[in-house]
Design goal:
Blueprint lengths: L2 E20 L5 E21 L4 E3 L2 E2 L6 H13 L4 E7 L10 H16 L6 H9 L3 H8 L3 E4 L4 E4 L8 E6 L7 H6 L10 H13 L2 H6 L2 E2 L2 H7 L1 H12 L4 E4 L6 E5 L2 H13 L3 E8 L7
Helix pairs in contact: 1-2, 2-4, 3-4, 8-9
Amino acid sequence: MANTILTAYAKINLSLNVLPRRGEGGYFQVRFINTQVTLGDRVRISETSFPGIHMGRSLVDGSDNLAVRAARLVYERYGLTTGIEIDIEKRIPLRAGLGGGSADAASVINGLDSLFELGVEDREKNEIALKLGMDVCYCVKGGLCTVSGVGERVDPLLLDAPVLDMLIATPPEHKPSTAWAYSLLRPGEMGNHLDRMKQLLHGLERGDIGTVAENLHNDFQTPIERRYPVTGRTRAQMIAGGARGALLAGSGLSVYGIYSSTDRLMETKERLEKQGHACFAVKTLREANRAV
């Protein structure tokens, strides 16, 4: 039986701006610059002789798992009947602002397209992703991109951007949900730093890591740090440990720092791991990985 294997890469927001006005479906308008990093789940999709969608050999007809929902949507849209088995080897921390569930779902969409040679166009993938969540729209495309609208508009940045060395640190605490994080946003703290996004883009265009690091921004950072001071302390430790810039990842609670010195990065990693953080030394990716 045929199979395909993909890496579902973690997502990092270099610039995360939520605008006060709402768009389609009541969702906030956004302006993001996203990239992927070399931390990822391994997603294997195998054709089986058993009908239905299985996760690790268990039939999952009614599962709310995002990867299973993605498979179900592809099945319904393209009339697939062959049984499949989805195996996910998790490395991306859950509910940590790194888009792990969205990346897995996107890999299922891309993987089924490859496995069954469906010839799904980008527009169709985006329509499927929209039913699962805005981050899935980005993860289906992947790489270095701007994201706008309510998250459904994803445009690759065709730049010879620098590869960034990053440390990601995820504390043992967990926030309730991304929806909860959105409820913390205050109108006066939203969408006020689009100028920094422009400067960050200029830094990427010029290959200027200093400008990129100086203009990282996340509208979630202030409200999340108010509720979870550990994120602020982690960010401060990264800066003190030599990071050129550090930022909350997504809606948290992971924090990442950009480093020029591998030694300083590894020293900070060791220090934060002793405090109970899950830490990953990663690099940014310019392009997304496809089925292998």
